[in-house]
Amino acid sequence: MAEGYDIVTTVESVAAPPAVQRKRGAALEDAILQAAFAELSEAGYTGFTVEGVAARARTGKASIYRRWPTKQELVMDALLARLPTAEQCGFIPRLDDSVTTAAALYGVARSIASVITSPAGDVMRAIKCEALADPQLARLIDDRFQAPRRESMLALLSRGVARGEVRPDAVNALVAD
User: What is the mean pLDDT of residues 140-159?
Assistant: First the structure.
């Protein structure tokens, strides 16, 4: 050993890198959903992998699978986190009497147009195309995205019938969709 060289002092003087704080709870879920949306935006549904999401979120696949047992459920939650709710689209449970059905429908149409032209709209269109070949994804899209909006549209149309602003035969799932 060289004179004046103290190995203990040298090891102690090297600063340990700061410990990286692991994300947990809501912070981890938010990081995973953001990573999943980024993966969808860049790789598309067919190129989407849980491994890619885990790498982006800096977590393990097990953390993802504990929260989302299937790829389809993770995809839907990532997308729904970016899309407006039915209420944000203008489907207000109780409209003021001064708001006509036509005005409410224009508001819904403006909201839909803004979503369609957004990055979330791009992803939603791609996922809906993939759902043609993936029944589980198609069911999730209908149950978690389309059904609540369909019900809100039917309620808005029913309100219009009661006010004499909408034909009764227009209150059906096809029109609502």
Answer: 93
3-state secondary structure the chain: CCCCCCHHHHHHHCCCCCCCCCCCHHHHHHHHHHHHHHHHHHHHHHHCCHHHHHHHHCCCHHHHHHHCCCHHHHHHHHHHHHCCCCCCCCCCCCCCCCCCHHHHHHHHHHHHHHHHCCHHHHHHHHHHHHHCCCHHHHHHHHHHHHHHHHHHHHHHHHHHHHCCCCCHHHCCHHHHC
Q: In whole angstroms, what is the distance from residue 48 CA to residue 42 CA?
A: 9
104, 90 Cβ separation under 8 angstroms: yes
Tens of pLDDT, residue by residue over 63-99, are 999 999 999 999 999 999 988 877 777 777 778 899 9
pTM of the model: 0.72
